[in-house]
Each structure stands twice: as C-alpha cells, then as structure tokens.
Amino acid sequence: MLLLTLKVFSFTGGIEKVSRILSKALQEYSTQSNQHKSALKVISLCDKSSDVDQRYCPKAHFKGFNGNKITFSILAFLQGLQKDIIILSHINLIMIVALIKMISKNKRLILLAHGIEVWRDLKPWKISFIKKNVEIWAVSHHTANVLIEKHGFHPSQIKVLNNCIDPYFNIPESFEKPAYLKQRHQLTDEHPIILTVSRLSSFEMYKGYDTVIECIGPLLKDFPNLKYLLAGKADLSEKQRLLQRIKNQQLDQHIILLDYISDQELADYFQLADLFVMPSKKEGFGIVFIESAACGCPVMAGNQDGSSDALLNGELGILVNPDHQKEI
Hints:
Blueprint: E1 2-5, H1 14-32, E2 41-44, E3 62-64, H2 69-82, E4 85-88, H3 94-103, E5 108-113, H4 116-119, H5 124-133, E6 134-138, H6 141-151, E7 158-160, H7 179-184, E8 193-197, H8 209-219, E9 227-231, H9 236-248, E10 255-258, H10 263-272, E11 275-278, H11 287-294, E12 299-302, H12 307-310, E13 318-320
Parallel strand pairs: 1-2, 1-4, 2-3, 4-5, 5-6, 6-7, 8-9, 8-11, 9-10, 11-12, 12-13
C-alpha cells in the first residue's frame, strides 16, 4: 500500500491528524499481512523525513520531501507503480494517480474526502477521472451528500468512514477541573467556562466563534462570572481583529484569547470547561467534538455540516442552527 499525503507530522490541522491516525491503522494492517505489496509506504510532500513520529509510522516506511514537488511527484509515481493500493489524503494529489493509471490499469485508488477541499468547485477532468477510477472514503455523511449532489458521484463509490480519536489522545480516568489551569487563568468554581478550540484564521470565517462572542454579552445577565476561552493558533490579522472586537464590546474581563493548546494539555482544557462550543458551518467532521465528549465536557455544534456525524445526530451533544444567535 502507498499513502500519499500533503502534510502529516509537521502540521496540526484536522486533515493532518487524520493522516497520522490512518498511517498507524494502515501500518498495523500491513504488518499483519504476509504479502510483500501490502507493506505500507507513506510519502509526504511538505514534511521532512525527520518529522516522522514513529508511534504512527516506522522511519523506514516514511519519506518527506520538505515541499519539493518535483522529487515528490517522481518518487510517488515510481512507488505507485509498485503498489496495488494507493490512498490519497487530499484531492490535490489526484494528478499523480491519474498518470499511474495510464500505465497500470489495475491499481486500486482511494481518495479521502474531508470537507471544503472537495465541497468547492472541481475541475471537470478530476470529476471525470474520479467517477471512473477512484473509491471515495468520506469522513461524514454531509461530505458524502455534497459529493453526490454537487459533483454527481454515484453513492455506490462512496463509503462513509468517520474520523476517530487519536490512539495517543490522553482520555482522562477521572473528571475534575485541573487546579493548575484554574490557577493559570485565575478561575474559580464560581466561573462558568465555555471553550472553543479552533484554528483562528482570517481566511476561514466559518468556525462560529464570532457568533459565540456575540452571545457572551446577553449571557452575562444570567451568568455574570462567565468566562469564554477561545483557543487556537491565530494569524496576526485575525488575532488583532478579535482583540479589537473583544475590546469594543467591553468583554475583556470575560473572554480569554489563548494560543495553540498542546496535545499534552488539550484534555485538561476540556475538563476545565463546562461547555465546548463551536457552531461551525463548514466542518467536514470535527474531531475536536469527540475529543471533548471523551473528556466529559458537554458539546454544542452546528447542524449544517459534518458536525452532525461527530455528535451522532445529537446523541453526543447539542446541535444548533449556527446562524441563529438566540438558539445558541
């Protein structure tokens, strides 16, 4: 098997997390197989070879190209000719397998379909090639439905494979608010705590945290000690915009803007919070929702995207209209 990826170990987004988990699952599967062609090889465009985390993939089975598209494409092509199964973590890699298919007709090709990267308009040749040659593993029923309704893919070529929690995610054995985080942020048991963990990007204005900010003012009438922790790696312009908005709405004492939360502390922040909220409108799945639920933190998500799959259509949390402030 060959897994072609854009990024796996040097980035922290949802697709990268899925790629790491898939690498481990495929590695375990290939180890159990006695067939030589089942041996897994993972090739990444943007990672360096030294970035590999061997909990997920042995160093000998991983190759990174640090952004060198030419050498990546050449090796991916040559490796693809040797493997029976080729899995793409992103649709932007489809050209490589299209070339491989011209030479070797019997390859099994699989595309992971996450969210906005396949929801947007696609070039006609990509749609045509995928329809004829590629199996699709969609992370949610929402993504599967978009592929069917927008691009005309047949339901029979799409399987829904929901995302899962990383096997190394620190699921707590007891459920108490961590004292060190309460001390760090000067919080007490008198503070109801709402948490959002998301990439804070001026190019991705669909996560719903602006709507949550709008809700904080009205909520203070009933919960005067309310604290909203908004966490995530932010680009400079988005951070400045958020800080200015918080100041303009006089919410400085109630909204705490945090940076990226490390994997080591993420579970503790879920335990610190009384409610995790992210009313997104364009979430392919939302691993963060199931991570929060696994840590005992109640979850609220939007009902117009893949979040519904993550919360089992409301069994694991509350689904709301992300455009309806009063409903939130």
